[in-house]
Specification:
Length: 472
């Protein structure tokens, strides 16, 4: 690492490990000092509180646990980055240390690449905070209206983890704002100006997952005409947000675990591993503990990700936040459009099974459909299930003999049958395409033969037409 020399305190009673850590510090351009006990470490830190740019801290020391020292540092307002080291089988203690304020953790034995990446990230974190002259936290520009009691612990946890490199696992129902919280955490930390790369793991094609995540070299396979960094490469130096991480295939879980453990990836076709410096924030709506017990998710990967879990409450448990969220969404769609009191009351009474995402979509739809300057209660079409467009705004379906022949029962006045919906959809496509079946089939995403079959089934051919022209 370029720059002036820095000092690192190694708190460890293992002589071999101390020498290895000392060598890593020297290669990075720093100078190491060693304390073999908690008492020695306390004395060195008291003598020069701002001397050390980072700490390597072992958890098992002759005169106590390294956790004691870590808690003392954080309770005293000392923000020096702390890299915790622990042996195999002690991941539970590493997780406890991360929750107590550690910056990163290493499980012995650890590769030199992983140690170097952790050290460089810690030094950079400390330097960034010192240059800002502030203690990390959520900036005033990100403050929102006074949050509900259900959200206060969430935002407090976000404040605490923002300054660290610790992996964060965001939990909660779909639509509760997990990506928003991930961005908020990043914006408040040392990596705010660095890449934030989101990836929806549930949308990854199984046979392309490896190349999308880890990249590939030119010529690595047919069609690989140029090199791809992959999502890990794009996020190097910044943050990778793994949304719906519980949907990852087993083989992808293995490769993700290695990337987290070693700090390096293997792009397809690459001659050697590539080092990456990434902070991981993952999210899921699944119960990963249950998935681990069922064998669907790796236990070792679970513990790597589940260092600091933060659970976002569903919107129905934080109704006090609905007015401020609704106003923000309305202002985003149509600046200056107000929500009338009756509209706010209706929004707060709704259960919101789709959470914040459903609220945002409801506001967007109301802004489009409303006539007046303010949004009224009647501008919101809400139900605890999916609400279709009012029937007055669609073509009234007609009962056809062909549908009866298919065994379709009569539709109720309140809800059309699937056959009626499909028939009207085909009619709309034909009208859109000027009655031309070939164009309509393309618009519908089906084959022309399939369209002709459905036209006959629904009685949409003129019976007296030799050319079988559709009735539109």
């Amino acid at each position: 690492m370029a720059g002036p020399p820095f000092h690192v305190l190694i708190v460890d009673d293992d002589g071999v490990q101390c020498r290895l850590s000392e060598a890593h510090v020297a290669r990075a351009g720093g100078r190491a000092e060693i304390a073999g006990t908690l008492a020695a470490a306390r004395a060195m830190l008291a003598a020069a509180p701002s001397r050390f740019a980072a700490l390597f801290l072992d958890l098992g020391l002759p005169d106590g646990s390294g956790l004691e020292l870590l808690r003392e540092l954080r309770a005293g307002g000392h923000s020096v980055p702390v890299i915790v080291q622990t042996g195999e089988g002690r991941l539970d203690r590493a997780v406890e240390a991360m929750r107590a304020g550690a910056t990163d953790f290493l499980v012995k034995p650890v590769s030199p690449t992983r140690v170097r990446a952790a050290l460089e990230a810690a030094i950079r974190l400390g330097a960034d905070e010192e240059s800002k002259g502030i203690r990390p936290g959520l900036s005033a520009s990100q403050d929102e209206d006074d949050p509900s009691p259900a959200m206060r612990p969430v935002l407090n946890a976000a404040t605490r983890v923002a300054r660290s490199m610790v992996p964060v696992l965001l939990l909660g129902e779909t639509g509760t704002g997990k990506e928003w919280l991930a961005r908020r955490i990043v914006a408040s930390g040392a990596r705010a100006a660095r890449p934030f790369v989101p990836i929806n793991c549930g949308a990854l094609p199984r046979d392309l997952t490896e190349s999308i995540l880890f990249g590939f070299e030119r010529g690595a396979f047919t069609g690989a005409e140029r090199r791809s960094l992959g999502k890990f490469g794009e996020a190097d130096g910044g943050t990778l947000f793994l949304d719906e991480v519980g949907e990852l295939a087993p083989e992808a879980q293995v490769k993700l675990l290695r990337a987290l453990q070693e700090g390096e990836i293997d792009p397809i076709g690459a001659a050697r591993p590539v080092r990456v410096d990434i902070r991981i924030i993952a999210a899921t709506h699944r119960d990963l503990r249950a998935d681990v017990e069922a064998g669907r998710f790796r236990e070792d990967l679970f513990y790597r990700l589940h260092v600091v879990p933060i659970e976002l409450p569903p919107l129905r448990e934080r109704r006090e936040d609905i007015p401020s969220l609704a106003r923000a969404f309305a202002a985003r769609n149509v600046p200056g459009r107000a929500l009338l009191p009756a509209a706010l009351a209706r929004l707060q009474a709704h259960r919101w099974p789709g959470n914040i995402r459903e609220l945002e979509n409801a506001i967007r739809r109301a802004c489009v459909m409303a006539d007046g300057e303010g949004l009224r209660a009647e501008d919101f079409q809400l139900a605890d299930a999916w609400q279709p467009i009012p029937r007055t705004q669609v073509i009234e379906p007609r009962r056809e003999p062909a549908a009866a022949a298919m065994g379709v029962p009569p539709a109720s006045a309140a809800f059309p049958t699937l056959a009626q919906v499909e028939r009207e959809h085909i009619l709309r496509a034909l009208q859109e395409c000027g009655g031309q079946p070939t164009k309509a089939a393309k618009l519908l995403g089906i084959g022309r033969t399939t369209l002709y079959r459905k036209l006959k089934e629904y009685g949409l051919f003129a019976p007296d037409s030799a050319a079988e022209t559709p009735k539109v």
